[in-house]
Amino acid sequence: MPPTPLATVPGLPPALVSARGELPRVLRRFRMALALFLPAVVLNAGDFETAVAHFESRRFAEAESAFSALAEHSERKADIAYYRGALALRRNDVTAAVPLLEQAVRLAPDSARAHQALGDAYGVSAQKAGLLSKLGWAKKCLASYETAVSLAPDVVAYRLCLLAYYAQAPGIAGGGRDKALATVREIQRLDPIQGGLSLINLHVSDKAWPEAFAVLEPLLAAYPDHGEFHYQFGRLASLSGLHRDRGIVFLRRFLAASPTPGETSRVQAHFRLGTLLEWEGDLAGAKEEYRQVIEADPNHRPARTALDRMK
Q1: In the chain, where do the E strands start and end?
Q2: Between vectors from CA 97 to CA 94 and to CA 101, what angle results, nearest 5°?
Q3: Closest to 165 measured CA to CA, from 156, 173, 154
Q4: pLDDT tens digits, residue range 250-259?
Q5: Neighbour-count burial of 161, counting CB atoms closer than 10 A to its CB (0-12 exposed, 13-18 middle, 19+ buried)
Q6: What are the tens digits of pLDDT across the range 296-306?
Q7: Which of 290, 262, 260, 265 is nearest to 276 (CA)?
Q8: Where do the structural domains in the chain lie, given as residue ranges?
Q9: CATH architecture entry for 209-311
């Protein structure tokens, strides 16, 4: 069956059809150019999603290369600046991270994640800065964290960053225990488990061991199968010397269970258990735990120091 002449296609403006019933040459060229351009747009979108997938799968070298290639992508500049800044921050290159994340915030001022990442970059800059400029970087860090929380008040991760700042920074830089406690209460409201862990850590930083155990006991009762609370009991016991027998039981229970995403590594649990066994006089058991730590992490200095001490 012969093709339908363009001149007979209903609704096609006559001006677009030549006397031979064909598209004029200029429109044919435009159609060809459009056909070439459209796949490129789809490819760019796919490239962006591939770059994000690399980042989320922790294939950071591939992500770095992919986002660098997309740096001039006009429609995703804010997102690309964010990811490139996050990658620079991960390799501890704040000289590159700060301007990239400032660009991300400038292009997407309502992006809580960009403000939070920029706060991280400012925080690292404060740690590296000289005495005279340290305070300025720290205040920028705090402002970015507070903005992230204001933009996404129900995201616990942003409040955890703010909590860490309040707990560690001096009052002159906007830190303070009262602010830290208030932030912990907000975290507890959003996530009782994470809030409880945060309050325990706050007590640990003060070496307030009875208070830390007092927070942990009801959490163990409410969540008897939660592995992280088992580890935390062993951790508190190894740090304080209190309740060592129960600490050993909980750490062995933690190590016997299947790992779950987000919980403390087995390496740390073996180290804490070694500490408790050494404290209890079971030197053979302690050495075995420390050996397992070093086997998994050859650079674990506390375990090496403990083994050297026990020779």
Answers
A1: none
A2: 140
A3: 173
A4: 999 999 999 8
A5: buried
A6: 999 999 999 99
A7: 290
A8: 209-311
A9: Alpha Horseshoe (1.25)
